[in-house]
Each structure stands twice: as structure tokens, then as C-alpha cells.
Amino acid sequence: MKTAVISCIHANYEALNAVLSDIDAQHADQIYCLGDLVGYGPHPNAVVEMIQALDIPTCQGCWDEDVVEGLNACECSYPSVLAEHRGRQAHEWTNKAIHPETREFLAQLPLSLRHENLCFVHGSPHNQHEYLLPEMDDFVALERVLATGADILFCGHTHVPYVRSLDGGQLQIKVTLPPTVTAHKTFSAPLKRIVNAGSVGEPRHGRPNATYVIYDSESDRVTLREVEYDYQKTCAAILEKGLPAIFAWRLAQGLEFAERAEDPSHICER
Q1: Which residues pair with 157 in a beta bridge?
Q2: Residue 79 — very low, low, confident or very high, per pLDDT cuts 50/70/90?
Q3: First to last CA, the chain
Q4: pLDDT tens readout for residues 113-172
Q5: Given Cys at both, which of 39, 144, 176, 204 links 159, Cβ 3.0 to 4.6 Å?
Q6: Cα–Cα distance between 30 and 240 in angstroms, integer?
């Protein structure tokens, strides 16, 4: 069975349409979506309508949550004051643009999905806003997978695709209780994997192409897919609808705009 996993569409209808065509060409049997259907892009309602029409099982992303719950729902930290300002602009535009039925659909999305030995989340099993980065500590990464009871954890949120294998091995936990009691626990963990699907609508891997993954359960193989599409059409729509021009620029570059040096200690105030 071939399972296609998409994430972080961010209201980019052109990219979603191209990826769905590619999934069809790959003869995938099932599609799962890891959320962030809206935010930054110009077509939030069209994207949600497409996901609904195809009945694609979908997790709630952090942007989906924010649009439903309001600005105070965010638990993330922005890399700079400027980044937060632009995030607020995108939120306010999206909040005005979406239809009531779109908001209702986003509100009922689950935080995670399961299928056999696979688990699907947006950020991590613990939080939609947590980034599971490829350089995360081995023990922490393994804990995130073990928390789901699955063998493969599919996530998004970072907008950069990767496959990380966590080799099976023996782990030991030591807990010291006051004043002198120490408890040891040892257990073995089989091979686990974290698969990041990247981003359909706002890639940050250095190219404007949309990314997603396909998992073949028969061969136990994960394939990272990269799909070209008319990103300039989306860029033009971003400008036409009055969203910040930087959103079009970074979409065309496939990069997150380098804002971190401005104020690396900044904590989101939303």
C-alpha cells in the first residue's frame, strides 16, 4: 500500500493542485495531511474546499488552530520582532478572508491520526508548535516516536523534508529521589523513524518546488517527492490580495527569510 503524506499547504492552491496530480501519477492508495491548510498564502478557502472534497484525513496544524482560537492560541516563539509582525499580518488577513464553514472545518480537525503502525501529527505528538528538527537529541527524538506507540512518526511544521532513522538499542533511565534513592530502568527500543513531509505551499529547502512523501508499506520505503508548479502565479496572487510582498519573495526562493539576527532572544507575544 502506498500512502502519500502532505503538509503545510498554507493556502497555496496552485501547489496543492500540482501535488495532488503527482500523487495520482504515483498511484498512491491513501493521502494524509498534516495540517497548516491556511496562513501566508492567498487561497485559504479553496485549499480547504479541496481537502474536504477529496475527504483527505487531516491533522490540525498550528495555523489552523490560531485561526480558530485567535492570536492568543500561539505557543511558539518567533525568531524576531519583524517575523512576529509579519505573522500577525498574515493571521489578520486570513481571519478576515476565510468563510464560516472553513473555520468550522479547521476547528474540528484532530491533533493526530493513526493508521496501523503509522502516526501523523503536525509538529510533534506533544504540541502542534514543537519543531522536530533532524538534529534533535537522539533520546528526545526516540521519545517522541515511542509516545505514539507507532513505528513511523510523520510530521511537518519545519517546511524542510527529511527521513531520520533511530536505530534500535538499549536505553537506560536513572532517576534520583531525595535523599539517596536511585532507580534504574532499562528497556530496548526497536528501529523507529521520523519522516518530515516538508511543505506543499511554502517550502524552505532552498527551491520553490512543493515537497511531500510517499510511504510504501510493502517495501517499507519512504520516498521524498519534489514537484514543480507555477509558483509565480501564487506569488502574483499574494501581491494582488495585499499580503506582504516578502511572502511572495520567500516563496519564490524556497527559503525562510533570514530574520534571526535582528533579535534572536525575541519571544512571541501573541
Answers
A1: none
A2: low
A3: 42
A4: 999 999 999 999 998 888 899 988 888 898 899 999 999 999 999 999 999 998 755 555
A5: 204
A6: 35
The amino acid present at 68, given as its one-letter code, is V
Residue 71, exposed/middle/buried by CB under 10 A (0-12, 13-18, 19+)?
middle
Cell matching residue 265 = 532572544
* Nine-digit cell string for 205: 529547502
Q: Which residue has the cell 519534489?
A: 226
Which cell goes with 12?
497555496
Length reported for the chain? 270
Q: Which grid coordinates are listed for 24?
A: 495520482
Query: Residue 68 is placed in which grid cell?
Result: 480558530
Name the fold adopted by 2-165+191-253. Purple Acid Phosphatase; chain A, domain 2 (3.60.21)
11: left (phi over 0), alpha (psi -120 to 50) or beta: left
- Non-local (6+) Cβ contacts of 91 within 8 A are 39, 63, 66, 67, 71
Cα R_g (the chain), whole angstroms: 19
Decide if 165 contacts 193 (C-beta within 8 A): yes
- Whether pTM exceeds 0.90: no
The string of pLDDT tens digits covering residues 243-256 is 999 999 999 999 87
CA distance 26 to 125: 29
The backbone torsions φ and ψ at residue 72, rounded to the nearest 5 degrees and listed phi first, read: -75, -5
